Amino acid sequence: MNSKVADTEKIEKEIACKIAELFMKEIGLERHVQGINIVDQDTGVALQMGNKFLIYPGIECHDKRMTISFDPACSWKILNMIFSYFLKKFSEENDEYVSLFYNYNNGAGNKDQIAVKLSNEKIYKSHPYYKECLRYLDIIMQLNGERYSDIDLQYLDSNEGK
Predict the structure, then answer these.
(1) In the chain, where does DSSP find H-type helix?
(2) C-alpha triplet 100, 114, 117: angle, nearest 5°
(3) Among 9, 48, 25, which Cα is nearest to 146's?
(4) pLDDT tens for residues 64-95?
(5) pTM for this model (two decimals)
(6) How many other C-beta atoms can be found within 10 angstroms of the C-beta atom of residue 114?
């Protein structure tokens, strides 16, 4: 493998870890103090996808039958599961629920957006991103109270590895 490919892979791995850390912060997840599992800060319960425990990204685990890396940037299944998990927590904490959710292209190139309509009729729209995970993270940040104008995840976005 040449050094340019290795450098690119290293950068992509660093971006994926940063995205995972942002998701964890926004959803209220943390690395378990005595292990590698991802746990909910409120309940201390380890997150699972099916029968596999989600583990902190970048950590090698010998038993791959029982673990899966928490990598919402590279796995649609994890992204979908973690967004559903967030929406459940959000609904329980705020007495609101998502009544409509959709993905769309605003006509400004290849970047898509997502929109969420809450039960109170308020609509949240993500900024346009190439990476789907950033659209979800943007919406989560807004639902957590971040102002739309304060959210800027463009530094993590690229059209490679959408």
Answers:
(1) 3-27, 76-94, 132-143
(2) 25
(3) 25
(4) 778 898 999 989 999 999 999 999 999 999 99
(5) 0.88
(6) 20
